[in-house]
Amino acid sequence: MRVLVPHLFPPPPMLDAAANLRLPALQTVLARGRRAPCPAAGVEAALCEALGIEHQQDWPVAPITLEADGGAAGDAYWLRVDPVHLRVMRDRIVLAPDQPVLTADEARQLADSIGAHFGDTLHPLPLVPQRWYLPFAQPPALTTTARSLAAGRDIRPFLPQGEDAVRIRAWLNEVQMLLHDHPVNQAREARGIEPVNALWLWGGGVRPSAPPQPLRIACEAPEQHAIAHFAGARVVAFGDPHATLIVVNTLSEPVQAGNLPDWREALRQLDAQLASLLRAHARLSVIDPVHGLACHTKRLDRWRFWHRLPRLDEALRSVR
Questions:
Q1: What radius of gyration, in Å, describes the C-alpha atoms of the chain?
Q2: Which end of the chain is more exposed for a tag (fewer CB within 10 A), N or C?
Q3: What is the pLDDT of residues 301-315, one digit of tens each?
């Protein structure tokens, strides 16, 4: 049984808030399991890899979700170009954890303005208000970072890279200027709602091929559902005793936002889930695909009483 828990290992400033939490199942996994590094490319990447979807320049999430949203990928190279809000801080620019909630009409107006300014070759396709797409006849020399991996963090390490990055970043800068005083954003700000002031590029690729996977996956996010269905896996409810892979997203939002009360509550919920899984499965792997660390435990490991259970903040801090 594999459990993907993005943001299981939080930034150091949050750790003190876990000092007085007693979560025996989570502490058992952390203290008595075998730790090993794993890729830190995000939850979408981990799910693609688990389902046999091959990495291209990026993990090809865009053509997968495009088809889930009713589009046809064809032979084009697709990028997600999601509408986002960037927060300008004193010493950095941060990708807001919460993506702006747009109406279909707002999304259409913003995308059409971008298309009118740059022409059809750079006209985003807003199939869903929060999920936009951009096709390329030829793959750009570009690598990107998933929005879920960059959210809540300084964007500088996560900007597009590659030979075409200068051209693409220049286009993104022009888009930001265009969006700055757009009527849709002016109306949103007048209502006290965060504007869309940037686009986030990620998930580029052509439609991949993947052998059908007979896995049963419990997950919630639209991208995760799309990846699972594309690979022929069955999406099941949390608590399904036959699930072979579970994605627990509940820590991501409070960690990205630095919300300590919600983070503590999410840890309690995770502990309850792990307690049930430890009883039901002889082997359990708990994987943080954001920070690149996995804890693998066997039933025999759980009886290693000479490995005391450390305080939770110590267990999480010990990987730093």
A1: 21
A2: C
A3: 666 655 667 789 888
